Amino acid sequence: MIIDAHCHVWPDEIARRVLADRPVGLDPVHDGTLSGLLKTLDASGIDMALTLAVANVGRTVWRTNEFIGTVDRTRFIPFGTVHPDLSVEENLRALKENGVVGVKLHPLFQEVAFADERTRDILVGLAENDVPVLSHVGSGGGEAENRRGAPRDLHDMVAEIPGLRLIAAHYGGYQVLEEAEKWAVGTDIHLETSWPPSMGTLPRERVLDIIRRHGADRVVFGSDWPMTDPATEIAAIRDLGLTSEEEAGVLGGNLVRLLGLDLPTT
Questions:
Q1: Residue 243 sits in which domain range?
Q2: Read out DSSP for 188-216?
């Protein structure tokens, strides 16, 4: 079982506009649509994917969750959006009434900061309702955006919210791996492996050391589709030198356990 924990999707016409702007200065590899993602999963031998949808402003939270709540649940696991412009209750209702099972936070594109009390209030509500969260952590934007997603603030936030099921993308610190090693590795969170344009640009020995120090059973595979090619990222995981048990866990088993997925036995 292989599950990609990090796949951004948009309605077809919006995907074209978003990707034309080269998010985070990267050239997309795929088209960002649900149909395009399904083709990629089949071509890469991936069984399922977390489909991530993010509302940059509060007024689009409902329709964003409405869109992501319609995905095919046999292949996709819908992770939707919240925003501090809305109350905790409004955010929770937009998730529940659209059947969205998890949340994606993106400090680079949303007014979401780990040190912001409004963000923490929402995350307390998510933790109390056992809603898992995957968040971008680290850099990739301007100074203000990078500060919103700083690994140190993530560390402090997680310590204050017991029971939060949080997955920190990009090993807990995109483009700031030293900060990630100091503030995210070894904490009570799961780390996710994406590092566009490719995880293969990181030193293999350093990645393996991070995974082992954090605990391979608390690391999950993510590609950051459509900005990377998942098949290439899977190959990079398999090239790390993990044991077969560790590799199986990272590529899917750990996420199945974390999310409590009820999958058919083959």
A1: 3-259
A2: SSEEE---TT-GGGS-HHHHHHHHHHH-G
